[in-house]
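call fold(seq) -> tokens
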Amino acid sequence: MTTPAAELVGVSQRFGSFTAVDSIDLQIPRGRLTTLLGPSGCGKTTTLRMLAGYSAPTSGRILIDGDDATRLPPEKRNLGMVFQSYALFPHMTVADNVAYGPKMRKVPAAERRRRAGEALELVGLAHLADRKPKQLSGGQQQRVALARAIAIRPRLLLLDEPLSNLDARLRVQMRAEIRRIQSETGLTVVLVTHDQDEALEMSDEMVLMRSGKIVQSGAPRDVFPAPADRFVAEFLGYENFLTLADGRQAAVRPEHLRVLPADTSAATSADGGIVLDAVVLDVAYRGVDLLVTLEATDPAGNAVRLLADHRADTATGPTPSAGDRVRLLAPEARLAHLSADSTAAPTAPTTAPTASTAPTEGIS
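ret:
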């Protein structure tokens, strides 16, 4: 069995009476991109900082390549890290910024230059090696920060919300760029983000955290269609929640809720799906589709407000309008059945860091 690139075993981090990370276990698979995902305050950045060595766990162990690194300082762990702010040295050229890490590790000058050139080539910025950071765009500065982290030949590359300061277009471009770099180099990458789209697009493994605990983990293709509970479902963008006749809860995404004419036969639910009679409250035109807001009664008899993503090119019958009575179909294959326990055990690896020293940045 392959030794994980890193492992957290029963790791907790407490600041006085506040528990930021609560006795979590997590294995970081080698050569993969693992995302720590969750809302602000869930413990994801605190976990990353413990892995990096910037804060020590209150309890538990941190292993890197199978060796106990719990009390090792950051400079002894050989991990590359990119923060939200790129922290480039403004007085140095791009090449000197990238070569700085190897220089601090006493790498000979010729080898430093070679590594810097390779790293800049990898991120597509070799032609800007002689420029200063202030002459670069935000996206270019982010690439330089990546190159600097890569140049030290790290055992793991840690990314703390690295795209949060970029505009929407650049964020999308850099997702693909980071994924390409990870794939080409085979680096083990741990990415912290609060953006579910970013996590779904980039991750090999996705770890969702809440209140210092791991609530669900696994490959995006496994987690997304089967959220463990309502918290995970809401965080991943599920907006429609129904209580079934047997008391269980189910969720369905707007794009999977079909709006049909009111006289559509209930036989449409032959696949075991749910059919509801509903009234259209509002219709918002969005170019390629309509966002339809509806009111219905779920199978348990509760009044619910639902959203449906209605595409005219796949619809049956006329376009719905406010006040129309319609029939809704939630196919069984599109229903996510939820656990009633919001602290359900994780389905895959678990994560945990804890520290006795308060972080220098916000807890998240």
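The longest strand covers residues 274-285.
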